[in-house]
């Protein structure tokens, strides 16, 4: 199975500042035939199911604020929240769907 | 609108089995697979497996092979996950999830059920 490793495990960011979460896969999730990375990002708030934010590493899901962006290719990916809002406090997970689906361990984002 | 509505809280003893249901609405049930993902208390997300609602083809996480069964009832648009030989390690919230409308065959989980808490305790 592909192992997904996120860093950091948690971070505290001031309101309005940038939050950056990294995700590394143990093998490439880039499919050469379509040049797409099979990587998604989810947000989970307490007591709620996860919510899809980003897929294909950088495609924002409909309705997701544009302060959320995804980047990267192959094995190294980043989720950026450009200006942290109170409602962004949550745990964020990366997930690969290149093969048997696997998730990162999660990154908890808090307000400093 | 797409909805996945799961069955309620379960409390089971070690060694027992549990069956969780996930009733889908708002789309053509047989056009998508249903995936199951679980989350132990305070822990991350673990993909358990999936079932094609079209042909019943299943795919399971290796660590659950032999203990999990997934089925669907197309007449009621309901998916079921059956987990046997429960231990305390199976205590978790169990979610069903459906793929993205633009990429129906891949595990991009655009829709989720509300979750079902399964507690295994003697």
Describe how the helices and strands are arranged:
The complex is a heterodimer of chains A (112) and B (122).
Chain A lengths: L3 E4 L2 E4 L5 E7 L4 E2 L4 E2 L1 E6 L6 E5 L3 E2 L7 E6 L2 E6 L8 E7 L5 E2 L3 E5 L1
Parallel strand pairs in A: 2-13
Antiparallel strand pairs in A: 1-3, 3-10, 4-5, 6-7, 6-11, 7-8, 9-10, 11-12, 11-13
Chain B lengths: L2 E4 L3 E3 L5 E8 L7 E7 L5 E8 L5 E3 L7 E6 L4 E6 L8 E8 L9 E4 L3 E5 L2
Description:
Chain A is mostly beta strands and 112 residues long. Chain A has strands at 4-7, 10-13, 19-25, 30-31, 36-37, 39-44, 51-55, 59-60, 68-73, 76-81, 90-96, 102-103, 107-111. In chain A, the strands form three sheets. In chain A, strands 2, 6, 7, 8, 11, 12 and 13 form a seven-stranded mixed beta sheet that branches. Chain A has a four-stranded antiparallel beta sheet with strand order 1-3-10-9, with no helix packed on it. A two-stranded antiparallel sheet of chain A has the order 4-5. In chain A, strand 4 (30-31) and strand 5 (36-37) form a beta hairpin. The N and C termini of chain A lie far apart (36 Å). The mean pLDDT of chain A is 97. With 122 residues, chain B is an all-beta fold. Chain B is 0% helix and 51% strand. Chain B contains no helices and eleven strands. Chain B has strands spanning 3-6, 10-12, 18-25, 33-39, 45-52, 58-60, 68-73, 78-83, 92-99, 109-112, 116-120. In chain B, strands 2, 4, 5, 6, 9, 10 and 11 form a seven-stranded mixed beta sheet that branches. A four-stranded antiparallel beta sheet of chain B has the order 1-3-8-7, with no helix packed on it. In chain B, a hairpin with a 5-residue loop joins strand 5 (45-52) and strand 6. Chain B is globular and about 45 Å long. The N and C termini of chain B lie far apart (40 Å). The model of chain B has no long low-confidence stretch (mean pLDDT 96). The chains are: A mainly beta (112), B mainly beta (122).
